[in-house]
Specification:
Elements: E1 2-8, H1 11-23, E2 30-33, H2 37-44, E3 63-69, H3 74-81, E4 94-98
Antiparallel strand pairs: 1-3, 1-4, 2-3
């Protein structure tokens, strides 16, 4: 069993990511609302407000998608996720497949 983490910075890309996961039968997916580190700095420490200009398109949307992936399915899922398009005005997201040492279901 693996754990898939996907950071999505575009609402339309989120729909595509979720579609890919459902197509692979990954129905135990969790989507968390997230905030980028730059957004936190900008909001909580106004001295860093100028950082917004470094990020084209802003940093208003961020979601973290978590999904358990059975052994042998990870490469196919990552291959399909690589075709997800994002809005060129937003920051691209990324996907990471982790192999935990142990997984306990509760």
């Amino acid at each position: 069993m693996h754990l898939l983490l996907v950071v999505v910075n575009d609402e339309e890309a989120l729909d595509e990511v979720l579609t890919v996961l459902v197509e692979h039968g990954l129905l135990d997916t969790v989507v968390l609302e997230a905030r980028s580190g730059l957004e936190l700095l900008e909001h909580d420490l106004p001295i860093f407000a100028g950082l917004r200009s470094l990020v084209p398109g802003g940093i208003d949307f961020c979601r973290l998608v978590l999904a358990p992936v059975p052994d042998g399915l990870g490469d196919a899922v990552l291959a399909d996720l690589s075709h997800v398009r994002h809005d060129p005005e937003s920051r691209p997201g990324f996907a990471l497949l982790l192999e935990p040492g142990r997984l306990l279901t509760i």
